[in-house]
Amino acid sequence: MNKYTLKALINPCWWVRNNPISRDLDKVYRYLLDHKDEVKVINCGPYTLHLLFRGRQYNVWWANFPYAYLSETVVTEEDGRITRCGGVLPTRATAMEFYEVFGASPEGRIDGKYRKAAELLSLTRQPEKTE
After folding, report:
1. Model confidence over 11-38: pLDDT tens digits?
2. End-to-end CA distance of the chain, in Å?
3. pLDDT over threshold 70, residue 78
4. Spatial contact of 52 and 42, defined as CB atoms under 8 Å apart
């Protein structure tokens, strides 16, 4: 049993997912993970992560973590051809590893304006009273 299987068993947020698993999509994400040193993060939007790998641009849905995380993938080739894949997910283990390698979703990432804990904290902070 690998660490991702154990995480999926003990963490209820991984129990329910919106879409079925696609082994083909899983192979795409595994390939990116296997060659992570060649993958460049171009941009992090509020819903999508933009990656560049060997001349191809990957636009990955990374919102709705974890139940719809990686559920939409758009690949743009150098010649402009576009391949879309949606409504399916990679395996939980691949999604967890992708999360660890390329960063968290907007809901949980450490930096950026989408960090919910920081937003909540900023709303509740009061200026210190000086006497």
Report:
1. 777 788 889 999 999 999 999 999 998 9
2. 60
3. yes
4. yes
